[in-house]
Each structure stands twice: as structure tokens, then as C-alpha cells.
Amino acid sequence: MIDAEGFEAHRDQLGELLVILHKTTTWLAFASFCGYGLAAWYLYRGHIPLALGIATASYLFFRLFRPLSLAILRRIAALREDLWPAMQWLDAQIRAHGAETVIAWLDERLFPKP
User: Fold this and answer.
1) Is residue 114 part of a domain?
2) Number of domains in the chain
3) 82 in helix, strand or coil?
4) Whole-angstrom distance, CA of residue 52 vs CA of residue 67
5) Residue 69, exposed/middle/buried by CB under 10 A (0-12, 13-18, 19+)?
6) What are φ and ψ of residue 10, in 5° steps?
7) Does residue 23 lie in a domain region?
8) Mean pLDDT of 12-18
9) Which residues neighbour 9 within 8 Å (Cβ) at sequence distance 6 or greater?
């Protein structure tokens, strides 16, 4: 069970962390799909090996976007003293319950759908 008391103690900072996380994942996914577009462009230009290499790299980058976005979030939080305790709480919850579960739980509470 996710620690609700810790959530309430860090609610504002967790909201800020989640906004940063979502922006980061959006940009990383965008970069990955730009790679797919570049691969398609090279494919139609007749550079098949290069297109396959770019598409493969884009796919691998896309597969790593969650761990990479969390690493970027940790780096940003480490630079800001006000966010670091909330990041430590978030890391503990992710280790205990998994990233998908914790992020979905936080999204549901911090950004409820109307």
C-alpha cells in the first residue's frame, strides 16, 4: 500500500515533481518519434541501412524513456532542496510498488479527472 501520510506531507512538491516528470517524458517520446520520422526519410532516400540503424536507436531510446525520465527527475530534484525529500519518498514508493503503479496513483490524486 502506498504511504498516504507521506503523500500528504509532500503533496505540493509531488505535484511539481509529477509536472516535471510528465514534461520530460513528453519531450523524450517526441524526440523518439522524430527519430522514427528521420528513419522514414532516410528510407525513402534509399539509405536502408542508415534508416534501420536510426529506427532501431529510436526504438531503444523509446523503451528507456521511463527510466531516463526518472533519472532526469532525480537530477533536477537533487539540485533543489525543497524537492529532495519528496523525491526520496517517491523513490521509496517506486522501489516498493513499481513506477507505473506509483505514478498512476499520484496522477489520480493530484490531477483528478472531472
Assistant:
1) no
2) 1
3) coil
4) 24
5) buried
6) -115, 20
7) yes
8) 95
9) 89
Contact 29, 95 (CB under 8 A): no
Residue 92 lies in a domain: yes
In a domain, residue 62? The reply is yes
pLDDT reported for residue 112? 87
Q: Which domain, by its residues, includes 64?
A: 4-109
88-92 long-range Cβ contacts below 8 angstroms, 24+ apart:
89/3, 89/6, 89/7, 89/9, 89/10, 89/14, 90/14, 90/17, 92/3
pLDDT in tens, 52-93: 999 999 999 999 988 999 999 999 999 999 999 999 999 999
Give the pLDDT confidence score for residue 69 in this predicted structure. 94
Contacts of 106 (CB under 8 A, 6+ apart): 7, 14, 18
Which three cell numbers, joined as nine digits, stand for 31? 524526440
CA dihedral 62, 19, 75, 67 (to 10 degrees): -30
- 83-108 pLDDT tens trace: 999 999 999 999 999 999 999 999 99
